[in-house]
Amino acid sequence: MTTGGTKGAARTKGTGGTGNAVLDAVQAALAAEYAAVYGYSVVGGRVAESREAEARQAYDAHRARRDVLGRTVVDLGGTPVTAAAGYELPFAVPDAAAALRLAAYLEDHVAGVYGDLVRAAIGDIRRDAASALREAAVRAVRWRGGSVAFPGLAERS
Fold first, then answer.
1. pLDDT (tens digit per residue) in 4-27
2. H helices of 47-149, where?
3. Per-residue buried b or exposed e for 47-59, using 16+ beta carbons within 10 Å of the residue's own CB
4. Is residue 120 classed exposed, middle or buried when 0-12, 13-18 and 19+ CB atoms within 10 A define those classes?
5. Cα-flanking dihedrals φ and ψ of residue 88, to 5°?
6. Are the beta carbons of 129 and 121 closer than 8 angstroms?
7. CA angle 87-89-90, nearest 5°?
8. Is the pTM of this model over 0.90?
């Protein structure tokens, strides 16, 4: 998903070189969670009735992660990024089938960002990021109906 603009750029209070990389990765995860929350509001409105509860659980999970990440940014001495005024969906979502594709896309995107956070962080932040990556990968498999070899690792050219 693309945002309508980046707001609330990271501001640090003496976190140092390594701290800046971690803070930047946490901020990116926070921004991804904002986008996922928005995306799931679309998914929830289009998904088949039989999967509404699953969409709601994913929405709630992303809201909870978003809230934790906001507190983590503050703990690291930064100012949390804010949600964008608008988000552009990666494709049209006119029906339930497209809603399933969007949900899988959202989870893949979030998994990738958490993969970056796992690489940047240590300790509790890394553990939590690995847990979030795993949860996103499992949700992506459920939405897609199949898995990918290395969830969270996007092919880069």
1. 433 333 333 333 344 599 999 999
2. 52-75, 96-120, 123-144
3. beeebeebbeebb
4. buried
5. -100, 125
6. yes
7. 135
8. no
| Tokens describing residue 48 | 């088949």
Q: How far apart are CA 76 and CA 26, in angstroms?
A: 9
Q: What is the CA radius of gyration of the chain?
A: 15
Q: What is the number of helices (H) and of strands (E) in the chain? A: 4, 2
Distances (CA, A) of 46 to 42, 92, 100, 119: 7, 11, 9, 35
Cα 143 to its chain centre, rounded Å, is 15
